[in-house]
């Protein structure tokens, strides 16, 4: 379920928009200069190798990167592995990496081939939480204050587009704003 929840930046309980309508989500985000679109998701993505996924999406990736600005395109994937005693620590470590507010020097472009993750965009006096699911493409403009929650059971496959090899590195603001907002798990259980 793709979801957009718009909240006041100084009061997460002040929910101004909550919608699962793709068209409304795209329009709300476009009004803020944020690109959002849906590509047909591959049912069996989890069982498909990263190379085969890149091959499957080659035409769309080429179209998105027609200017050649993205020099590094890869796939990030994480799935629950309860048989691995290290999994809880791996999941916690991965989740905490981008859970605090930061920005990047380049656009953060992600296509979710499967699973889900939530981007929180801190735009002026509002925070837009965007839960992306398999099929969603989101582009967070360079310099935009944001954070990302992959939830307590991280499970997603995402195509990442970078201009520079270290484009994923975050410039953290030190602001604890994210602690006052619902987590991905909480957003999904709220009605
Ligand atoms: Fe980021």
UniProtKB/TrEMBL annotation:
Pathway: Amino-acid biosynthesis; L-methionine biosynthesis via salvage pathway; L-methionine from S-methyl-5-thio-alpha-D-ribose 1-phosphate: step 5/6
Site (Important to generate the dianion): 110
Cofactor details (free text): Binds 1 Fe(2+) cation per monomer.
Keywords, ordered alphabetically: Amino-acid biosynthesis, Dioxygenase, Iron, Metal-binding, Methionine biosynthesis, Nickel, Oxidoreductase
Site (May play a role in transmitting local conformational changes): 107
Residues that coordinate or bind Ni(2+): 102, 104, 108, 146
Gene Ontology terms: biological process: L-methionine salvage from methylthioadenosine; L-methionine salvage from S-adenosylmethionine
Record carries keyword Transport: no
Organism of provenance: Nocardia amikacinitolerans
HAMAP family xrefs: Salvage_MtnD
Subunit structure and binding partners: Monomer.
Cofactor(s) demanded: Fe(2+); Ni(2+)
Gene label: mtnD
Task of the protein: Catalyzes 2 different reactions between oxygene and the acireductone 1,2-dihydroxy-3-keto-5-methylthiopentene (DHK-MTPene) depending upon the metal bound in the active site. Fe-containing acireductone dioxygenase (Fe-ARD) produces formate and 2-keto-4-methylthiobutyrate (KMTB), the alpha-ketoacid precursor of methionine in the methionine recycle pathway. Ni-containing acireductone dioxygenase (Ni-ARD) produces methylthiopropionate, carbon monoxide and formate, and does not lie on the methionine recycle pathway.
Catalytic reactions on record: 1,2-dihydroxy-5-(methylsulfanyl)pent-1-en-3-one + O2 = 3-(methylsulfanyl)propanoate + CO + formate + 2 H(+); 1,2-dihydroxy-5-(methylsulfanyl)pent-1-en-3-one + O2 = 4-methylsulfanyl-2-oxobutanoate + formate + 2 H(+)
Documented EC number(s): 1.13.11.54, 1.13.11.53
Main EC class the enzyme belongs to: oxidoreductase
Top-rank lineage group of the source organism: Bacteria
The protein, known as: Acireductone dioxygenase
Family, similarity comment: Belongs to the acireductone dioxygenase (ARD) family.
UniProt-annotated site: May play a role in metal incorporation in vivo, residues: 101
